[in-house]
Write a structure and sequence with these properties.
Elements lengths: L15 E5 L2 E6 L4 E3 L4 E10 L2 E7 L8 E2 L2 E3 L6 H13 L1 E16 L3 E15 L7 E8 L9 H30 L3 H4 L3 H11 L1 H12 L13 H19 L5 H17 L4 H21 L9 H27 L1
Parallel strand pairs: 4-9
Antiparallel strand pairs: 1-2, 2-3, 4-5, 4-7, 5-6, 5-10, 8-9
Amino acid sequence: MKKQRKHCLYCGEIITKKYEDGVQRDYCGVCHTFFYENPLPVVSSIVESSRRILLVKRERPPFKGYWCLPTGFAESGENIESAALRELKEETGIRGRIVKLLDVESYKSRFYGDLLFLTFVAEQVGGKLAAGDDCAQAKFWPANKLPPLAFRPNKIAVDAYIKSRRDYWAIFDSIKEADEHTPSPRTAKDSLTRRLASFINKNKNEIIHHWLDDVITNPSTEEYHCVDRRVLDNICDKILSQITLWLGGLHDISQIKKFYTKLGRERKKSGFKISDALSALSLIRKHIWMFALAQDVLQKNLELYVTFELQRRMTIFFDLATFYLTRGYEE
């Protein structure tokens, strides 16, 4: 239980209670001084690797034997982010870099009184995993199999982090699934995807023409309005070439990753907003489908499962393109 103040810090007299602004506070009648109880700042860090979250097992009370995020008090005069990285290093041996502030929560502890938990997302930049003096263990736990956590703010922050990463992890799952189920060139030869790839090749110039007219006037791609048409033509031509190779089973994920990560970096360097770049990419898919429908390439009597396969392959390609374009921006 947190100890209560009994004597004045300045004169040593017995402390009494007195109301100020509707709040009962410690008060010294001799010094005419109020003493304020402010929440203590507590820092925590979420470090994740391959969907595993770093936790430490507490060696001391409170909650001895329970798991929690690397957590501790900020020191006076210490930058709050530096405090989080210091606690991370002391408790786990890992040197980190702050990525962002994730969550702030109030918490009442019977040991320390009112606390303010600030939880950061951090990434490992060095060090070696080893439990510190205050910890019995330090290990990475699968995000879907975490043990009960000692502190409520830790659980709230971890839940928020996992929720924020679900879509990101889902993309990785789709990449893995796509890689495992990508048909060989021979398998794809007689499929509808092969026929559509051939159609795109034969009508590439027309598709590019319609896309250019759209991308330089569409409100969602405003930053493309002043770009030289020849530059845009070249970009669209490369993307359509990749799509035909992908649909034909001749283009793998590593090539898509390399191209779109580089494209994302280039678009960022050129000062383009990521929303404009992603919209321009989605317009390519739009004009492929619109042109195919206009030319009656997709016959009404096609077997349903073949149509689903076509949609699946196109969706995977553009999901991969969007994902790696975004990664290029993040780099």
